[in-house]
Amino acid sequence: MIPLSATTTCPDPHGVIRGLRREWGDVAWVELEPGVGAWLVMGYQELLTITRQEKLYSRDARHWRLFQEGVVPPDSGLGPMMFWRPNVIGADGAEHRRLRRPIDDGVAAIDQRRMRRSVEAMCRQLIEDFAERGSADLVGDYAAVVPMLAIAGLFGLDTGQGHELLAALRALFGSAEDSQAGNRRFEEILGGLMRAKKEAPADDLTSHFLAHADLRDEAEVLQSMVVMISAAQETTTTWIAQTFRLMLTDPRFAGRLRGGRLGVDDALDEVLWRDPPMTNMPARYALRDTELGGRRIARGDALILGLSAANDDPRVHGGATEIELGNRAHLAWSAGPHVCPAPVPARLITRTAVETALHLLPDVRLSVNAAELTPHPSPWTRCPASLPVHFRALGDRS
């Protein structure tokens, strides 16, 4: 049994997935942490099945048998990503729809034109800050900062809080020893923000959640903020960073993007197919014994959504070697009732960040060998830990 993190941290994750598919088929047994196993759902149709049939595959982690039996301890590093929370992620049916409405309403209320202008100004300022030195880390100096600043603005966080929140989220998504401490600090920051906005409401998403009729108390408000901010920050950072990684390491991708034969939106779609923001998404829990992809699934088993693996399902591509331009049938945003609520603002932030960098850093080059690039440790995402680059310094440009 291989660890789930082998699909995110190894040099060839697609090779690992294809090896698992040869051995297991479309549903493979993997290790989440020592002694804790789960099913990794790699088939495109199988993934659609578990995301659309919530009466059989629940999002409520209280059904997780290994947790009920004490195999997974309460202080497990898996907790912040997999344990039940009283929020939209942990609910099914009518309860899920009630908790989803404030998020959908908040996303719909975003002024996209104003957001694009704001994000472009942020991107220009960030690039200006490092342009004089002719070098940068396109993750730490840019890809991770742009979403943080954009999300902070939407929720009414100041920049200092945003940077602290970013560090807490990195620990949370790592699912290691510091994940629970990161989660606690994350919620502390948001709790303080919520209390401040309760005293002085403003035109921001925190105030929107506090005033929404479908949220019954401050705990539900806090958890709605937790879901929206954590998902938006991590996924958008990874989407931007993976686009840059391909641009810097894949001559075909870079040539088509820089040469104008591949529009930025088409490039972003290719990234969603090849290296989606969430490689693996936790989780669904079987409500009864069943069968999926030829495997017997026991009641209470955890099923991990292999989003990257499902996109790589050979039945989807029919042997084609390249992604068809304009094809958005990928599962990067999952599917079913729990599909990502905010792909439009995520694309707006990512497209603006990539376009601005392409325009202002036309000669950017990787400063290390591509083989030296490694991802942040996480079984869920495959975000490059850094992308060190160099380019002509601002003062050297004619």
Automatic annotation (TrEMBL):
Q: Which family does it belong to?
A: Belongs to the cytochrome P450 family.
Protein name from the UniProt record: Cytochrome P450
Native source organism of the sequence: Nonomuraea guangzhouensis
Q: What is the lineage of its organism?
A: Bacteria, Bacillati, Actinomycetota, Actinomycetes, Streptosporangiales
